[in-house]
Amino acid sequence: MNSQLAIYTIAIIILGYILLRFIASWNTKGSENIILTLALLASSGVLMAMGSIEMAGRYGYSMIIALFAFSLVFVIAPLVLFPIRRLSNVIRLATSVDFLTFRYRGRKVAIVATIATILAIVPLIFAQLLAASSVINIIFNSDMQIMTLVTMLGVVGLICHYTVKSGAQSNLRLILATAGVLLLVALAISAWISIGNSFGGLEAMDSWVMLSGQQETIKRLDTSYSLFIIFLAAGLSFPTNFNVLVTETITDRQASMTSWAYPLIILLACIPLYPMLWSGLNLESSASFQEYLFALPIMMNQPVVASLSLASILLLSIAVCSSLTILGSRMILNSMILPDKNLTQQINLSYWITRTHLALAVGLMLFFVTLSLSIKSRSIIDLYLVGFSGLAQLTPGLIAAMYLPKANRKGFIAGLIGGMFLWLISLALPLIFGDWEWQIPIIGKSLLFGMQAWEVWAIEALLLNITLCTLFSIFTKMDEKENTYASICMADNVYIPIRVELDQKTVEELTQKLFFVLGEDANIEVENALEMLGFDADEARPAALRQIRDTINASLNMRLGVLTTENVMSEAFPPPKSLSSQPEDLFVLESVLAVHGNQLTGIASEFNKLRVHHREILDKLPIGIVSLDQNGEILKWNEAISEYTNLDNSSAFGSSIADLPEPWNKEITGFVASDDIIRDNVSMELNGKRRWFTFQKSTGVPIDDINDEVILLIEEKTESVLLIQKSINNERLASVGRLAAGVAHEIGNPVTGIACLAQNLEHESDSKQVLETAEHILSQTSRINRIVESLINFSRGEKSIIKNLQRVNLHEVAEETIQLLTLGDNASQVQFKANIPSDFEILGDYHQLIQVFLNLLSNSRDASTADSEVTILATEADGKIRITINDSGTGITQSLQSQLFEPFVTSKDPGKGTGLGLWVVFNLVKGLDGDITINSPAENNTCGTTVALTFNKPENQA
Questions:
Q1: Are strands 945-952 and 931-935 parallel, antiparallel or unpaired?
Q2: 53, 489, 603, 823: most buried by Cβ count inside 10 Å?
Q3: DSSP letter, residue 287
């Protein structure tokens, strides 16, 4: 045993892992991108470390073409894998087999695709085991194949156990990244020391290449066509590539980064390969080409460099075996075991899935290890060529799934079985039993099976696959479900779940229905969906319930696979008979286009811009727009209707009109159900205010087509209605004015007569009581004359204010008003208390102020209960006199407070009020340059009303 190499190798692996763990701890975009790129470099296993040097010696420059073709999948990913990634963002796909199953439908597709994938990765696993055996043999200086295989089984089993149990791929990616960075360093240093020890410098190496004929040798391109096709096709269906770009939760920016980072790092890794090849040839090394990476440093007595190479190869083998085993066992679990499992009877389903997945992974690795004992080939590149030729058989079905809507299930199965059968007998079995030859009896020619004619059989198997797929797809029919999912999986399509009304109306009902199919895990799935979407458990909007259903579907796809999830969801939430006729869920469509709209190109991008433009127009219109489907679900809710209802778009969109708050629920539901096309002046009480709206709809007949919608236009007409009402009031006031002029004219004569009689009474009687009565009569007739004059002025449209204002004592006005009110029938109802300083005066008209106080105090009296109190207070501040009238009566309703000073507005019963009192008061106060406010409830009270009058003090008193 070479203990020095062993110690160095283990130490380098540990240091490399610590370094990458440190980089990962930065938790920045740069560190994540570095780890992702290095992991992708290592994901192909020992191909770069060992197979590429052997391929360079065997095929010359064709090696670069092959490796570039394998990395080209990331360059063309926007055409191939990104459409699947976009689809996976909605439905979630655990493996490439799940995608093929989703597209072509049926368990046969899943089983055939799984078997084909497992068979194809067998040679790739053999290559990793062979590379690990080479490393162990070097370290122990003897053939340690059995110990290597047992060790690999144990280490891979431990990694699989940790990865499957934790459910996270981050640690496995970190191991791959560690292997990648060790590989890059090993290639660079090994090439550098090889050039120095073998040639002495680059110029000497160039001279040797020219003289030895290697310049012509490496120009061989006879197999470049086959290598390019097979490596490109294998790259598209390589399980790890699909897992990284589609299944794992990397960002779109990281996915786009791989399109240039991975090809670049592959080309950089190719630079040292030819110098190492030429150094080995110049040194006449006895090691095979595939061992040059560690054999040359050992020849040159560089144990650290050799250990670096050995560590990278060993780590690559372990990481790729673990990755492919986990993915392969997941395919078997999803396609062959879970579809037959009765989930409701399984206690702790998650634990059972984890345990079964781990058992399958270990069993699959054991199968690989056991089978590897019987292989004849010892060439890394031969194993890779066979494995890649097998993976290439999955590529036609993968591309057809996205670009050929007429490719059907029978065509895919026939093509894959035919291609895999030819690949199996011509390339795969010869790895175990050795190459063989078949003599054709009639024509006398022989066919070589095995690596001697690999380029022929690899292409022939691929052509047979394509031919059978084409013929079967042409001559067999697709059912409706196949057609529907073929359309969904097209590369230029954005998958949107259909908008189907669920029978379940609440989250609780949805959970109960899922429980009957999924068991106890139903609660976990629903809780996770609610948390992910940010919904509450009492959510009842139809669109929200569909989102919960779709989120559960996506989660189950990752846990159980497409087949089992379809069975579970179909039983819990039966789909409609015809999927193609169902409308798409516009809520999800808007969400997807909002996130991925910038990724659209060409005419699709222009249409999306037009969609956004039209949507913004509808949102900004000053008219409320509501779109309803046939079940009453809200599909459009613009900004205007949001302002009307105080219900934003996020809350209304996707809900039912039956869930709208009153009175909108009643009014919209009734209008939609009616035959009316338009309904004018719909009156509603909103936030204590009366508002009027006009309703219009797009159709007056019931909608029968499932894709039909009802468009409602709701326009507020409050200002128009109030303007019309104001016009009517003005007309009424004009009529009152004309009537007042006539009444004033008629009143004038009898009032004059009364005044004359009162004057005569003063001269004819000496009784003090009679004289006081006559004086009162004359005072009131004078007041009547002033009121009549005001009525005449009102009828002429003039201000009812005397031109020559005089000082008026507010205390006297209040006292006289109270005295007048005590003369009426209601004198005993309330008590008036005036607290106005005797020196408070303003400029005004004494009689009109009496009229103001009479109106206000009589209103307070009418609103107050028996034996209650009405107080009149006056204060002075900042040159203003403020008079407040407080009562503890019934108060004024909120709906009337904004209209108190409008004419004909009253809260009194018909016949008890005209609605003109406060309007007259308002105009009189404004005519005196005063101000009036009314608050209900009263100030510092929970009931009653406070009326505040504010007047300017005369200048010499201010």
A1: antiparallel
A2: 53
A3: S
Backbone angles phi, psi at 264, to 5 degrees: -65, -45
Assign 779 to helix, strand or coil: helix
Report residue 351 as tokens. Answer: 């634990």
Q: With bands split at pLDDT 50, 70 and 90, how would you rate the model's confidence at 556?
A: very high
Mean of the per-residue pLDDT values of the chain: 84
Confidence of residue 388 (pLDDT cuts 50, 70, 90): very high
Distances (CA, A) of 605 to 45, 599, 609: 39, 8, 6
Rounded-to-integer distance, Cα 342 and Cα 800, Å = 92
Nearest to 312 by CA among 86, 73, 526, 135: 135
Q: Is the Cα torsion angle 323, 326, 332, 333 positive or negative in sign?
A: negative
Q: If you write DSSP's letter for every residue of 900-954 in order, what string do you get? A: TTSTT---SPTTS--S-HHHHHHHHHHHTT-EEEEESSPTTSSSSEEEEEEEEPP
Answer whether residue 231 shows pLDDT above 80: yes
Spatial distance between the Cα atoms of 56 and 274, rounded to a whole number of angstroms: 7
Q: Which residues contact 81 (CB under 8 A, 6 or more apart)?
A: 73, 236, 241, 242, 245, 246
CA–CA separation, 315 vs 156, rounded Å?
11
pLDDT one-digit tens code per residue, 577-591: 655 555 555 656 666
Rounded to whole angstroms, the Cα distance separating 810 from 598 reads: 75
- Lateral strand order in the sheet of 634-637: 634-637, 624-628, 710-716, 689-697, 678-686
For the chain, list the domains and their CATH numbers: 3-475 (1.20.1730.10), 501-581 (no CATH), 600-716 (3.30.450.20), 718-798 (1.10.287), 805-958 (3.30.565.10)
d(CA 471, CA 474): 5
Residue positions counted in the chain: 958
Q: What is the pLDDT of residues 134-192, one digit of tens each?
A: 888 888 877 777 888 888 889 888 988 888 887 767 788 888 999 999 999 999 999 99
Helix, strand, coil content of the chain in percent (nearest 5): 65, 10, 25
Q: How many other CB atoms are found less than 10 A from the CB of residue 38?
A: 25
Supply the DSSP string of 697-757, one letter for each residue.
ES-SS---STT--EEEEEEE-HHHHHHHHHHHHHHHHHHHHHHHHHHHHHHHHHHHHHHHH
Asked if the model's pLDDT at residue 393 lies above 60, the reply is yes
Q: 129: which DSSP letter?
A: H
